[in-house]
Design goal:
By secondary structure, the chain is mainly alpha-helical. About 55% of the residues lie in helices and about 10% in strands.
Length: about 220
């Protein structure tokens, strides 16, 4: 009788162990799925990691933003064989109208950003101009509400960081459009780290990029 009871107990114990093992094996794919959805991307040429989860990138505090600027500067230097730039630009978040005014100063009818709410020309310009860099002020102007919480938002910062590097390094270009070539190239390569692209995130196809990056004179 005792022997039979011990056998039953042993079998029950083994069955319970099997259930636990089965639960563990079921949970493994979920953990693997979480790893897929939460990318930990190490920027090539740097020790900086960007963590992308279901809800976007980790919010950037002031301190971490400085680390990010350093990482972008290092990444750009490594990717495009540029001298390292160790002087960060100023970052300002401003209304979209001010960004347009800075970008098209002297080219638009109202260069001070006093656009009427339903001004079609202003709306088109705002849509085409996401951010801008001022050589004189060494400042990147990003739109209000920018958080750096998506690959697309960060790519805008990367684009302007290229212009900051071009400014500090004294690089010369035949025309303003030629200056944009490296900026868009770096922006697209950055987006590619996350499986994105300029065409997907900004609707910039190869023909549009050609117009934006080629001198026509």
């Amino acid at each position: 009788m005792l022997k039979s009871l011990l056998c039953c107990t042993t079998l029950l114990t083994l069955a319970m162990a099997g259930l636990v093992g089965a639960q563990d094996s079921v949970q493994e794919p979920a953990t693997h799925q979480q790893a897929i959805e939460q990318h930990d991307i190490k920027l090539p040429g740097t020790d900086y990691h960007i963590v992308l989860g279901k809800t976007g990138l980790r919010p950037l505090a002031d301190a971490s933003r400085q680390d990010l600027l350093t990482a972008i500067e290092t990444w750009l230097a490594a990717e495009y064989d540029l001298p390292a730039v160790h002087r960060h630009p100023q970052i300002e978040l401003v209304p979209a109208a001010k960004i347009v005014a800075l970008r098209y100063k002297g080219m638009l009818p109202d260069a001070q950003g006093n656009f009427a709410p339903n001004d079609v020309g202003a709306t088109s310009a705002e849509r085409d101009t996401v951010a801008v860099y001022s050589d004189a002020a060494r400042t990147i102007y990003l739109p209000e509400g920018w958080t750096g919480s998506t690959p697309a938002e960060l790519s805008v910062l990367v684009h302007e960081m290229v212009h900051h590097a071009q400014n500090l390094l004294g690089l010369k270009h035949e025309c303003p459009q030629e200056r944009e070539k490296l900026a868009y190239l770096a922006q697209d390569r950055w987006l590619g780290l996350f499986g994105h692209s300029l065409e997907r995130d900004f609707e910039l196809d190869p023909m549009s990029l050609l117009v934006k990056t080629r001198c026509f004179h």
